[in-house]
Design a protein that fits this description.
The complex is a heterodimer of chains A (about 550) and B (about 140).
Chain A: H1 4-24, H2 57-61, E1 84-89, H3 94-106, E2 111-114, H4 118-121, H5 145-151, E3 162-164, H6 170-184, E4 193-195, H7 199-206, H8 213-230, E5 234-235, E6 237-240, H9 242-246, H10 251-271, H11 276-279, E7 283-289, H12 293-314, H13 320-323, E8 327-331, H14 343-357, E9 362-364, H15 377-392, H16 407-430, H17 433-438, H18 441-458, H19 488-502, H20 505-520, H21 527-535, H22 540-551
Parallel strand pairs in A: 1-2, 1-9, 2-3, 3-4, 4-5, 6-7, 7-8, 8-9
Helix pairs in contact in A: 3-5, 6-21, 10-12, 10-16, 12-14, 12-16, 14-15, 20-21, 20-22
Chain B: E1 7-11, H1 20-31, E2 35-38, H2 45-54, E3 59-64, H3 69-82, E4 89-94, H4 101-106, E5 111-113, H5 119-138
Parallel strand pairs in B: 1-2, 1-3, 3-4, 4-5
Helix pairs in contact in B: 1-5, 2-3
The chains are: A alpha/beta (about 550), B alpha/beta (about 140).
Chain lengths: ~550, ~140
C-alpha cells in the first residue's frame, strides 16, 4: 500500500522509536510482558504500514458491496438501513411469549427471534417423560400448530421477519410458521426470516441434536430445495459460530469451524443436485461478539472475506448474493458475570459496538441478568436501548467500515484469516467436517481452549472485573429475576390432551404414515409431507417420533 | 482406604446441552488427581444414580443451565435415598439463582457453585468433603 521510499522512511522512524524505548522502558515498564487478545493472539505495541506491506487494497479490502466484501456486504451499509435489532426471546407459554414479542416490537425492535424450550428443540412434546422439569424454561413450549397460532397472534407475518433458533426439528417449526402465515392470509413467498437449522454445531457445541448426521443433512438440503421454490425470502440456515465460541473456542476457531460447517452444507446440497448460486443466496451466519474488541472487529471482517473466497474458488459461485456472508451477532453470554451484574450492561455495549463496526446484519444484545436467569422485561429493554444508542447516537454508523485501514485492524484481520485457514486445511485433510467431528477433533480443540481460558481467569492473566479484580465484599441485588411458572408443563399437558381429543385423528395418522414413507425415499422432499401433518395438528413430538423410528438417534461422541 | 482416589461422576441431567462448565470441572477434578466419569448429555436421574452406584462413586457433580435444577436435584437425591446411597455427595452448579440455593441445600445438596466460582474452590471443597465422609466411615 506504500511505496518503497515511504516504507524505508517508516522503517527508519520505527527504528529510532524503538531505540528511544530501550532507554525509557526500564524506568517506565509496560503493564505486562506480553499483551494478548482473549483468544491468545499476541498484540504488538504498535502496528505500522510495515505490517501491511503485502496488502493489496483492491483485491483484499476493496469496496463495500464488492468482492471480497471485507468492508461489508452492502454498498452503503448503515447509511442505508441500520442492522435489524433482533432480540432473542421466548419463555413459558405461547401466550406469555407473544406478550413479550409485542412489547419488543412496540419498543422499536425490528424483528423477532424465537427461543424454544428444550423439549421443543429436541422434538419431544411437553408430556414426554424427558420433558419433565424443562417445559417453558429456556424458551417457549410449542407442541403443535395450535401453540404457534397463539405465539404469533396479532403479529403480521408479512411485516415482521422472524428468526427461530431451531435445529434438529427445523422443518417442523418452519412448517408451522408457514401454516400460521396461511391462516393470516400471508402466502409463503412473502414470509421473511431464518431458521437456525445448523445441526453440525449441535454435535460440536450446543447439544440439541436428534438424528444422526446423514438423515439430518438430508432434512437440511430438503429445506434448501423447498424454500428456494416456495419461501424464497427465507434464510434456510444460520450457520453458527456463536455456540462454538460459547463452548470456549478462540475467535479464529469460531470462524474456522463455522466456515468448515458451511462447506459441509454446501457440499451436501451440491451432492443433492442443488445449485450453489441459488441456495447460496439464502445461507446466513451467526457469530459471537466477545470481549477483545479489536480482535472481534477483525474476526467479522476476516469471516466475510474468507467466505467470499471459499464460495468463489471452491464452489465456482458467481452470483454476488451467494458470495456474501450475511450474519447475525449475539453478544457473548459466557462473558456475563453473576457478580455486579450491572457491569454486564457495559460489557454488552462494547461487544455490540464491535459487531456494528464489524458490519453485522442483525444483533441481539444480552441482558444484564442472564448469568442468573432469563431476562426480565426491564433488563431486555436496556439491552435493546443499547443497540439504539449505538445506532442512533454514536455516529459510528455514518461511514462504512470506519476501522478499515487501521494498521492494527487490518493486521489482525489477516492474522485471524491465516489462523482460521490453517484449521480449515487441517479439516480438509481429515476428509471434511463430518469426519473431524466424528474423530472428536473439533470438540477437543474447543475444550482445550475453554480449559486454557478458565485457567487464565483463575490465574488472573485474564481480568474479569468484579470476579477476579475489583470485587465487592457484600453484594446487594436490587432487581427482580424472571421466574418461569412451574405450572407451564402441567398446562401444556392439559392443552395436549384437549388437542388430541379434538382433532381429526384419522387424518393425523395418515399424515404421519405419509411422513414415514417419505422418510424412506431420499428422492422425496420431506417438507410438503411435514407441512401436511402440521396442518392437521399432528404434534411436533409425533412427527419427530416417526422420524426417530426411521432415522435413529445420534449418540454423543464424548470427548474429554 | 483413605488413600484411594476420589471417584466422582460429572453429570449433565435432562436436555440441557451446555457442557462447557461440566467438561471444565471434569478436567479440573481429574487434574487434581481424582477419577472422573463424565456421563455426557441427556442423562436421566435414574441413569446418573445407577452410574454412581456402579462406579462406587464418592460424589456426583451436576451441571444444569436450563433452569430445571429443582426437578433434577430432588429426583436424584430421592433416588439415592431409595438406593440407600445417601453417602454419595451431591453438588452442582450452573445458572442457578441465589434464591434457589437454600432449597437445594435443604434437600441434601452439599454445595452449589454459581458462575464465577474457581475450579480450585470446587476441588478443595470436594476433597475436604470426601475426606470428612471417609473419616466418618472408618470410625
Amino acid at each position: 500500500m506504500f511505496d518503497k521510499t515511504q516504507l524505508e522512511e517508516i522503517e527508519k522512524l520505527k527504528h529510532s522509536y524503538e531505540k528511544a524505548l530501550e532507554k525509557s522502558l526500564p524506568k517506565g515498564p509496560e503493564r505486562k510482558s506480553e499483551f494478548k487478545t482473549v483468544s491468545g493472539i499476541p498484540v504488538k505495541r504498535i502496528y505500522t504500514p510495515e505490517d501491511l506491506t503485502d496488502m493489496d487494497y483492491c483485491h483484499e479490502i476493496g469496496f463495500p458491496g464488492e468482492y471480497p466484501y471485507t468492508r461489508g456486504v452492502q454498498p452503503t451499509m448503515y447509511r442505508g438501513r441500520l442492522w435489524t435489532m433482533r432480540m432473542y426471546a421466548g419463555f413459558s407459554t405461547a401466550e406469555e411469549s407473544n406478550k413479550r414479542y409485542r412489547y419488543l416490537l412496540s419498543q422499536g425492535g425490528s424483528g423477532l427471534s424465537v427461543a424454544f424450550d428444550l423439549p421443543t428443540q429436541i422434538g419431544y412434546d411437553s408430556d414426554h417423560p424427558m420433558a419433565q422439569g424443562e417445559c417453558g424454561k429456556v424458551g417457549v413450549a410449542i407442541d403443535s400448530l395450535a401453540d404457534m397460532e397463539i405465539l404469533f397472534d396479532q403479529i403480521p407475518l408479512d411485516k415482521v421477519s422472524t428468526s427461530m433458533t431451531i435445529n434438529a426439528p427445523a422443518s417442523v417449526l418452519l412448517a408451522m410458521y408457514i401454516c400460521v402465515g396461511e391462516k393470516q392470509g400471508v402466502s409463503s413467498d412473502k414470509l421473511a426470516g431464518t431458521i437456525q437449522n445448523d445441526i453440525l454445531k449441535e454435535y460440536i457445541a450446543r447439544g440439541t441434536y436428534i438424528f444422526p448426521p446423514k438423515p439430518s443433512m438430508r432434512l437440511i438440503t430438503d429445506i434448501f430445495e423447498f424454500c428456494s421454490k416456495n419461501v424464497p425470502k427465507w434464510n434456510t440456515i444460520s450457520i453458527s459460530g456463536y455456540h462454538i465460541r460459547e463452548a470456549g473456542s478462540t475467535a479464529a476457531q469460531e470462524i474456522a469451524f463455522t466456515l468448515a460447517d458451511a462447506i459441509a452444507y454446501v457440499e451436501a446440497a451440491i451432492k443433492a443436485g442443488l445449485d450453489p448460486d441459488v441456495f447460496g443466496k439464502r445461507l446466513s451466519f451467526f457469530f459471537n461478539a466477545h470481549n477483545s474488541f479489536l480482535e472481534e472487529v477483525a474476526k467479522f471482517r476476516a469471516a466475510r472475506r474468507m467466505w467470499a473466497i471459499i464460495m468463489k474458488n471452491r464452489f465456482g459461485v458467481s452470483d454476488p448474493k451467494a458470495l456474501t456472508l450475511r450474519f447475525h451477532t449475539q453478544t457473548a453470554g459466557c462473558t456475563l458475570t453473576a457478580q455486579q451484574p450491572e457491569n454486564n450492561i457495559i460489557r454488552v455495549a462494547l461487544q455490540a459496538l464491535s459487531s456494528v463496526l464489524g458490519g453485522t446484519q442483525s444483533l441481539h444484545t444480552n441482558s444484564m441478568d442472564e448469568a442468573l436467569a432469563l431476562p426480565t422485561e426491564k433488563s431486555v429493554g436496556i439491552a435493546l436501548k443499547t443497540q439504539q444508542i449505538i445506532g442512533y447516537e454514536s455516529g459510528v454508523t455514518d461511514t462504512v467500515d470506519p476501522l478499515a485501514g487501521s494498521y492494527a485492524i487490518e493486521s489482525l484481520t489477516n492474522e485471524i484469516q491465516m489462523k482460521a485457514e490453517e484449521y480449515i486445511s487441517k479439516i480438509d485433510e481429515m476428509g471434511g467436517m463430518l469426519t473431524a467431528i466424528e474423530k472428536g477433533y473439533v470438540q477437543k480443540q474447543i475444550q482445550d481452549a475453554a480449559y486454557e481460558y478458565q485457567k487464565a481467569v483463575e490465574s488472573s492473566e485474564i481480568t474479569v472485573v468484579g470476579v477476579n479484580k475489583f470485587q465487592m465484599k457484600e453484594e446487594e441485588r436490587d432487581f427482580q429475576l424472571l421466574r418461569v411458572d412451574e405450572k407451564v408443563g402441567h398446562n401444556q399437558i392439559e392443552k395436549l390432551k384437549k388437542l388430541r381429543s379434538g382433532r381429526d385423528n384419522l387424518a393425523v395418522r395418515e399424515a404421519l404414515e405419509d411422513i414415514r414413507q417419505a422418510s424412506r425415499d431420499t428422492s422425496v422432499n420431506m417438507m410438503p409431507h411435514i407441512i401436511n401433518a402440521v396442518r392437521c395438528y399432528a404434534t411436533e413430538g409425533e412427527i419427530c417420533g416417526v422420524l426417530r423410528e426411521e432415522f435413529g438417534e445420534y449418540t454423543e461422541n464424548i470427548v474429554l | 482406604m483413605t488413600h484411594e482416589k476420589i471417584r466422582v461422576i460429572v453429570a449433565k441431567p435432562g436436555l440441557d446441552g451446555h457442557d462447557r462448565g461440566a467438561k471444565v470441572i471434569a478436567r479440573a477434578l481429574r487434574d487434581a488427581g481424582m477419577e472422573v466419569i463424565y456421563t455426557g448429555l441427556r442423562q436421566t436421574p435414574e441413569q446418573i444414580v445407577d452410574t454412581a452406584i456402579q462406579e462406587d462413586a464418592d460424589a456426583i457433580g451436576i451441571s444444569i443451565l436450563s433452569g430445571a435444577h429443582h426437578f433434577y436435584f430432588s429426583r436424584i437425591i430421592e433416588l439415592l435415598k431409595e438406593h440407600e446411597a445417601l453417602d454419595i455427595i451431591v453438588f452442582g452448579g450452573g445458572v442457578i439463582p441465589d434464591d434457589d440455593v437454600p432449597a437445594l441445600l435443604a434437600m441434601g445438596a452439599g454445595a452449589i457453585f454459581g458462575p464465577g466460582t474457581t475450579t480450585t474452590t470446587c476441588v478443595d471443597w470436594l476433597k475436604s468433603k470426601v475426606h470428612e465422609k471417609r473419616t466418618l466411615e472408618m470410625a
